[in-house]
Design a protein that fits this description.
The mean pLDDT is 88. It is globular and about 55 Å long. Helices cover 43% and strands 18% of the residues. The chain is α+β, with helices and mostly antiparallel strands.
């Protein structure tokens, strides 16, 4: 099923199901999808039934939705296009990384596969979007919340849906490539983090938005 046969609304669903399934469990719950898209659960249930009829997901009440092989390929294609457009908007247009997600959501539906390849060539095949997520494939990383106190990691990516959160993380230096150490977690859920040698404090939404590649602690010197 070529991507252009899907409506923009269906494409948005496929993108989010793909993102959720590659960030955690393969089965995506109705509630999680509703929260991510900002819609009511009954609307999600109705759409998942439609996607199942199209052969894009396997879905049943109380067991969530799992992408079929076709759905996985379609979701990956759409997410790759979105991330490529984000890179275009930052590298060529000059938008801040906190501004590009919503713009890319609007533009991605109008870009043909042929134009996508031209953009990719013009940008010299970028490996990641501005937020550190791979344009193609996926990374073997974990949520910062999964790193125990005393653990180290390299920031691979951050969630791109909240502009204010992106500005906050940028100001704290929590950006792709930063070396971080989880110092401790406070009773209120906040995380004390050492970022390239500087201590910062992250609230739960911020720490949950960061993904890292676990790393060994630096050599003493």
């Amino acid at each position: 099923m070529p991507g252009q046969e899907l409506s923009p609304n269906v494409e948005e669903y496929m993108e989010e199901i793909y993102r959720l399934s590659t960030e955690g469990e393969a089965s995506v719950s109705t509630g999680d999808l509703a929260d991510r898209l900002g819609v009511r659960a009954p609307s999600v249930t109705e759409m998942l039934g439609s996607l199942a009829e199209k052969g894009l997901v396997d879905y049943g009440p109380y067991r969530g939705a799992v992408l079929t092989d076709l759905g996985y390929r379609e979701g990956r294609r759409l997410v790759e296009k979105h991330r490529l457009v984000e890179r275009l908007l930052t590298d060529v247009i000059g938008l801040d990384w906190s501004e590009v997600h919503d713009e890319a959501c609007e533009l991605e539906h109008a870009i043909s596969d042929e134009l996508e390849e031209k953009i990719r060539e013009a940008l010299e095949n970028p490996e990641t979007c501005p937020h550190g997520k791979p344009v193609k494939g996926r990374m073997d990383d974990v949520s910062l919340d999964e790193v125990e106190p005393g653990g180290y990691g390299i920031v691979t990516s951050v969630s791109d849906g909240d502009p204010e959160l992106l500005q906050e993380l940028k100001a704290l230096g929590v950006v792709p490539g930063a070396e971080v150490e989880v110092v401790r977690r406070l009773d209120n859920g906040e995380t004390v983090l050492r970022v390239d040698g500087t201590r910062v404090l992250l609230n739960p939404p911020a720490s949950g938005a960061v993904r890292v590649e676990p790393a060994n602690p630096p050599e003493p010197g």
